[in-house]
Hints:
Order of helices and strands: HEEEHHH
Number of domains: 1
Number of strands: 3
Strand order of the largest sheet: 1-2-3
Number of helices: 4
Distance between the termini: 52 Å
Radius of gyration: 20 Å
Strand content: 5-15%
Mean pLDDT: 88
Largest sheet: 3 strands, antiparallel
Helix content: 55-70%
Shape: elongated
Amino acid sequence: MVPIPAIVYNKLAAPLQLFASWVASNTIEMMGIAILRDGNVMHLSGLSLGVAEACSGLRSISSLSVLALVLGYFICSSLPIRFLLFFLAFPVAIGVNVLRIVITALFAREDPALAEGFFHSFSGWVVFLVGFGFMYLLATVMARFERPKNIEVGESQ
């Protein structure tokens, strides 16, 4: 796989960081937890969490979009459904990235050490697997809505 060029990566990472921290802080606030967001830094009571460039979700977007292509090839038969699955990888990747930020913030409220180290890395893998599972589910559901192929049965002689 060819890596995303640095110029493109840097142009996309910052807006995604801000968007992910905005959605995550609004989600946490809807849970009744006091939070203040300043750019990509979320301030909880006695704790500040920064949504780093690596947490922008670009890696998940690139990985899930490639997996969507593979899933589309093996599960879906029509080209429009394959394209739709590919494009759905983008909101799914952003959604699971926001989920990871929310979960990390909630656990970090209990123990700030959970916001870094092993848990932070492990949660990345778990949330990515959740994203992959969701993409697989989308592929199988969309494959059921494809037009059935006409199977012509020849007459036996």
